[in-house]
Amino acid sequence: MNLYPTTGEIYLPKGEVPDIGDLLINGDFAKMLKVIVSEEKSSANKGRIAGIEAGCNAFYKGPIAKTILDFIETQDALIHQTKKQCALVEVKSTTKGVQSFDLPSHLKRSTSVNRARKDNYTTLMLSNWATRSYFDIINLKEENVNNTFVPMMI
User: Fold this and answer.
1) Torsions phi, psi of 100, nearest 5?
2) How many CB atoms lie within 10 A of CB 151?
3) How many other C-beta atoms are found inside a 10 Å radius of the C-beta of residue 16?
4) Are the C-beta atoms of residues 152 and 23 closer than 8 Å to each other?
5) H-only helix segments in the chain
6) Alpha-carbon gap, residue 121 to 111, rounded angstroms
7) What is the pLDDT tens value at each position of the chain, 154 positions in all?
8) Are 59 and 65 in contact (CB under 8 A)?
9) Which of 25, 55, 76, 141 would you label with 113, given CA atoms 20 to 30 Å apart?
C-alpha cells in the first residue's frame, strides 16, 4: 500500500481490514461518476443517445482519460526500471537446488549515486513468489463462501 496510499485509505481505513458490512467510501470514484453524469445531463436536451455519448466522451476522451493515462505512464516507467534492475541480477544454483541472487561483482564495487542497489533484486524474489502464488490460486479448489462484500452506492 506504500506505492498506492490512496488505495489503502479506501480499502484499509485506519490501516485495518474492514469488517463485513462496514461502509467503504471512495471519493475519487464518486467524483468521476459525477463528472460523467454532469456531462450526460448537459447533453440530455439533444436526446438520450447524445447524453450517453457525452458521458462516454467524458470518460474516454476528457480529464478522466488523461488521469488514467498519466497513471499508466507512471506505472510503465516503474515497471521498466524494475525490469532493468532485475536484469542485472545473477542467479546461482547449487547442485542441491539452493538458489542465491546477487549483483555481479563489478556492480557491487560501484560508488556512483546511480549505482545498482542490492535491495533492488528483492523485486525478483517478489516476482518468484507472485508466480508461485498465481499457480497456487489457479489450482485452488472452489469453496462456498457465506459472507461476501457487496458494494453499495450512497
Assistant:
1) -130, 150
2) 7
3) 8
4) yes
5) 5-11, 27-42, 48-60, 63-86, 105-108, 122-138
6) 18
7) 566 777 888 888 888 888 888 888 899 899 999 999 999 999 989 999 999 999 999 999 998 999 989 888 888 887 777 777 777 777 777 888 777 767 777 777 777 776 666 555 566 666 666 677 777 777 878 777 676 666 666 6
8) yes
9) 76
The DSSP element (H or E) to which 92 belongs, if any, is: strand 90-93
Three cell numbers written together for 85: 534492475
Instruction: Show the cell assigned to 140.
Output: 485452488
Q: Report which residue type is found at 118.
A: K
Please answer whether residues 97 and 110 qualify as being in contact, where contact means their C-beta atoms are separated by less than 8 angstroms: no
pTM: 0.51
Query: Is residue 83 a contact partner of residue 73, using CB atoms and an 8 Å limit?
Result: no
Residues in the chain: 154
Q: Which of 12, 55, 6 lies closest to 28 in space, CA to CA?
A: 6
State how far the alpha carbon of 78 is from the alpha carbons of 5, 75, 85, 107, 144, in Å.
16, 5, 11, 21, 38
